[in-house]
Write a structure and sequence with these properties.
The complex is a heterodimer. Chain A is built from 26 helices and 20 strands. By secondary structure, chain A is of the alpha+beta class. Chain A folds into 5 domains: about 1-120, no CATH class; about 165-305, Up-down Bundle (Four Helix Bundle (Hemerythrin (Met), subunit A)); about 370-430, Helix Hairpins (Orthogonal Bundle); about 430-610, Histidine kinase-like ATPase, C-terminal domain (Heat Shock Protein 90); about 615-765, OB fold (Dihydrolipoamide Acetyltransferase, E2P) (Beta Barrel). Chain B is α+β, with helices and mostly antiparallel strands. Chain B has helices spanning about 1-15, 75-80, 155-160, 160-165, 175-185; strands at about 20-30, 30-35, 40-45, 60-65, 70-75, 90-100, 100-110, 110-120, 125, 140-145, 150-155. The chains are: A alpha+beta, B alpha+beta.
């Protein structure tokens, strides 16, 4: 039975997504129905018959044999609900009625009423908190099952019983931002701005909302976003223009998404549920009409229906009270909404308003978004305060006073300053854990939805990442993980055929390396199909048909806007946004993407991000009179240098024998052309550093200790200097340069120094050990 | 008559781009220079400058300006004047110049800051036709104030190559060896 149920769920999901003209989608749906008949195998079974009829109906739709396709489609969608109620909820076939069009011989037939306006996947009574009930029943609802029926899977009643509130809260904040962006862009279009860029931006906003709401099982948001996206996709392709009417519709859908979000937020506190039908109203029909290019009605749209809460507050008259009463009693019977119970028992309707406000407060922690620029400024100021404080604290004249009072005050000041500094640091840095958790959740939901088996391995969840990066890394990571799960990992059967374990594996790692932060997304799926990418790129005119490309260049083609080889558009991914968004987000952070792939074996995407403002552990070293910071992560070890350790080669280069491993030595003073003023006879230290398997020894004067420092950019002027990754403010207020180990290894081995070490010719005597 | 004079002035202004207004004047060796006051963000006393190795000799290094790291350019070296020991008068003028990615702050190391002068249009003249070897490009004009002469600098032009193309690693260039010896001579 389990398989049938799963199959039905897939169908239910498909019905929402598939449009009447989507032939491949319909064909897939057709196959799924046949699959069900195979699974059941018993021809006398009601569900078997229904599935068979449905598949026949789809065939007729595909072959254009039905006059009213919409109607036929509605029949199918209703039948699925009923099949589900039989299979999942163990209802007796005799209790339910299939739509008469299926011709299954129901004794009481029901009239089909203009199904055209019926949103697909019409919900049934949920019996528990059908909040929309105080509104006259929609006349165009078809095939209502008996009033006590359960909630079908694709119901528009949102139930937040077991929802993850922190994820929801994040989603709400994020989606609201997307709504605002989309709104702004729409207004830009109307004010005559370049529509192309704006449409792309709005499209992406809806795309993101769609994706996220899909994972969170917020069907109403999903369907509205999906339809809007389809409309915008057409605009993107230039099939239609976004002008007054269509813009209005999109504005309306933004508003509706916002309202849905408000409701979700409200319902979150008490794990409640709400009915989205009223909110959604006829927007889906209007969107579809706009998509299919039908005459747009010139009627003034009815005012958006009010939320229940508002209605209750507004009403206050007896008749409505009765309704409230009823609803609350329903709640009571489920041991829910205790506060509401009491309020209703006391008939204090206005108090509901307070309760609602309270709930809202509980649900989402008030967050303030701060411009990172301001945050940086605050941190800079705190840094200055720390330095100023230590200057006062260590001022000899003040210390000479010997006043215990002043000493106490200074230590108090010191404590406050440290606290402030810690707070400041905490504000900037966050572990990637929360971002990773979202991914884990997404993969879990994806596996559920697609029937694939995927194991997600997360490495480096505690890697501290600059907040600015975390804010921007979420979307790209999500896109890539979705791509891996949706397009990369094969179905279990296919995997077994290929000799792979049936469970696919996606590995996401975060780590610091060579002064950068890396995020790797690796899957053991089917890998990128070079031929298909090439074909598609040629077809779209993205590349010169005769040009030969390297593998790497081919893979990079998927980063171009509007590029998608996905054969099927799903609500998971595959509209050709995705990778270009990823690319743009990463470029905005001045990072880069590397793609490695082997067909049949998997894909690895590596994101490299600079750590502009990230804190790193550094080793403070002194050379001549200068201080430098070497990132501890790149330091293998450090050792005192004794003359007998060092062997010169041709008097041009120095090497040491480190436990059998030969390492070339480079003197930082030579590399940096520093002039030595004092004694040259000090015992130096070798710091062994490693970058991408290249190991060298850097010779410095002294190690001054470990420091945790915030990297500050040296600004655009020094962007050409590869050996320095930034500067750090040292405890004396001066700037210390942070050495980029990769850069300095390059410099030492290749750059600036020709093979015969010309720089040593004139100066080698100076550095003789 | 007045009109003609005005017209003449416009021509001159266009040619040398020097506008009447307030200029911050400062000294380099024994010469007096001026930069438009609007470009000046602040004047700070000499502080410890962290040298940035492998950069051109006129790049003195970087300083921490209240938590922000800004580069310091030695104007004397930029103009190929002789090196001079720092004095108590030596200070850094922080200017804002337009870079390819927005405004950037740069510190200019000068011998001494003199005063803020209100320079009238009639006091400004174009630079005389110097022989080759003097870059007139940087110079907006020359102001005759009383008996002295102030060289009005186009600071954006002065820092143009520094800002626009960024500082290159001098030792990585093909003639790196040559530069090193030159630097050492300095």
């Amino acid at each position: 039975m389990g398989n049938i149920e799963k199959q039905l769920e897939l169908i239910a999901a498909d019905i929402i997504m598939v449009s009447i003209d989507d032939m491949p989608g319909l064909a897939a749906l057709h196959d799924k129905f046949l699959e069900i008949t195979k699974l059941i195998g018993d021809k006398s079974d009601k569900v078997f018959q229904a599935a068979e009829k449905c598949s026949e109906l789809i065939e007729e739709i595909i072959l254009n044999e039905v006059s009213d396709k919409e109607k036929a489609f509605t029949v199918i969608s209703n039948s699925v609900s009923i099949m589900q109620s039989i299979i999942r909820d163990k209802r007796k076939p005799s209790e339910v009625k299939f739509p008469m069009e299926l011709g299954l011989g129901n004794s009481e037939t029901e009239k089909m009423e203009s199904p055209k306006n019926s949103p697909p996947a019409q919900s049934k009574e949920d019996g528990q908190s059908r909040l929309g009930d105080n509104k006259p029943q929609n006349t165009n609802q078809t095939a209502e099952v008996s009033s006590k029926s359960e909630i079908p899977e694709e119901s528009l009643v949102v139930n937040l019983d077991d929802a993850d509130t922190s994820l929801l809260a994040d989603f709400i904040t994020e989606a609201r931002e997307h709504c605002s962006t989309a709104e702004q862009m729409l207004m830009d279009i109307e004010s005559g701005e370049d529509p192309e860029a704006a449409i792309n931006s709005i499209f992406r906003s809806f795309h993101t909302i769609k994706g996220a709401s899909g994972f969170l099982d917020l069907k109403p948001v999903l369907v509205v976003a999906h339809e809007s996206e389809t409309l915008l996709d057409m605009a993107r392709k230039g099939t239609i223009k976004i002008e007054n009417k269509r813009a209005d519709i999109i504005f309306d859908s933004i508003d509706i998404i916002r309202k849905l979000l408000d409701n979700v937020e409200e319902s979150m506190a008490d794990n409640g549920s709400f009915d989205a039908r009223e909110i959604i109203g006829d927007i889906l029909e209007r969107l579809r009409a706009a998509i299919s290019g039908e005459e747009l009605s010139t009627e003034i749209d009815p005012p958006p229906p009010k939320r229940l809460g508002e209605m209750l507050v507004e009403s206050g008259d007896l008749s409505k009270d009765d309704v409230d009463d009823l609803l609350e009693k329903q709640k009571k019977s489920n041991n829910k909404g205790k506060l509401g119970e009491i309020l209703v028992e006391e008939k204090k309707v206005p108090a509901k308003k307070i309760a609602k406000a309270l709930r809202r407060q509980k649900a989402v922690k008030e967050m303030v978004k701060i411009d990172t620029g301001r945050l940086d400024k605050l941190l800079d100021t705190i840094g200055e305060l720390v330095i100023a404080e230590s200057m006062v604290g260590q001022n000899e004249q003040i210390l000479a006073l010997g006043s215990t009072n002043i000493a106490r005050n200074i230590s108090h000041l010191n404590k406050i300053t440290r606290e402030l500094q810690e707070m400041g640091m905490a504000m900037r840095l966050v572990p990637v854990r929360s971002t990773f958790q979202k991914l884990a959740r997404a993969v879990r939901d994806l596996t559920k939805k697609s029937g694939k088996k995927i194991e997600l391995v997360l490495n480096g969840e505690d890697t501290d990442v600059d907040r600015g990066i975390v804010e921007h890394i979420g979307d790209p990571l999500m896109h890539m993980v979705r791509n891996s799960a949706d397009h990369g990992i094969e179905d279990p059967d296919e995997r077994i055929k290929m000799g792979k374990p049936p469970v696919g594996k996606i590995t996401i790692s975060a780590y610091h390396k060579g002064g950068n932060i890396y995020f790797d997304i690796e899957d053991d799926g089917r890998g990128l199909d070079k031929e298909r990418i090439l074909a598609k790129a040629r077809e779209n005119g993205l590349i010169d048909p005769n040009k030969e490309l390297t593998d790497n260049e081919i893979y990079k083609l998927i980063l171009l806007p509007g590029f998608s080889t996905a054969k099927k558009i799903t609500d998971i991914s595959g509209r050709g946004v995705g990778m270009d968004v990823v690319q743009r987000n990463i470029e905005a952070m001045r990072g880069s993407l590397e793609i490695e792939s082997k067909q049949g074996e998997g894909t690895k995407i590596s994101m490299r991000l600079p750590l502009t403002l990230a804190i790193i552990d550094g080793m403070l070293v002194s050379v001549c009179d200068e201080e430098f910071i070497i990132p501890t992560l790149s330091v293998v070890e450090s050792l005192r240098m004794t003359p007998d350790m060092v062997h010169s080669v041709n008097k041009k280069a120095d090497i040491i024998n480190l436990r059998g491993e030969l390492l070339q030595l480079f003197h930082i003073d030579t590399l940096f052309n520093l002039s030595r003023t004092g004694n040259n006879d000090i015992q130096k230290t070798v710091v062994v550093v490693e970058d991408s398997q290249r190991k060298i020894g850097l010779v410095v004067d002294r190690l001054l200790g470990q420091r945790q420092t915030v990297i500050k950019s040296l600004g655009p002027m020094f962007s050409n200097l590869k050996w320095v990754s930034g500067g750090a403010i040292l405890s004396n207020g001066n700037v210390g340069l942070i050495i980029d180990v990769g850069g300095i290894v390059d410099l030492a081995i290749r750059g600036g120094f020709s093979p015969d070490y010309p720089e040593l010719k004139g100066t080698s005597n100076q550095f003789a050990v | 008559m007045a009109n003609t004079q005005e017209a003449e002035n416009t021509i001159e202004t266009k040619r040398y781009n020097a506008q009447a207004g307030k200029y911050l004047t400062f000294q380099l060796v024994d010469e007096e220079y001026g930069i438009e006051i609007l470009k000046v963000k602040e004047i700070i006393g000499l502080m410890d400058i962290t040298p940035v190795p492998r950069t051109p000799h006129y790049v003195r290094g970087v300083i921490n300006l209240r938590g922000k790291i800004i580069p310091v350019i030695d104007l004397r070296m930029k103009f190929d004047m002789e090196m001079q020991e720092n004095t108590p008068e030596t200070c850094i003028i922080v200017v804002d110049v337009a870079g390819p990615k927005g405004i950037i702050s740069i510190g200019l190391l000068v011998d001494a800051v003199s005063e803020v002068l209100d320079i009238e249009q009639k006091e400004i003249e174009g630079p005389p036709a110097f022989g080759s070897g003097i870059e007139v490009d940087y110079i907006l004009g020359i102001a005759k104030v009383k008996t002295s002469v102030k060289i009005l600098l186009d600071i954006d032009k002065v820092l143009d190559n520094v800002v626009a193309s960024a500082i290159t690693d001098i030792m990585s260039e093909a003639d790196g060896e040559h530069n090193i010896s030159e630097d050492m001579a300095n």
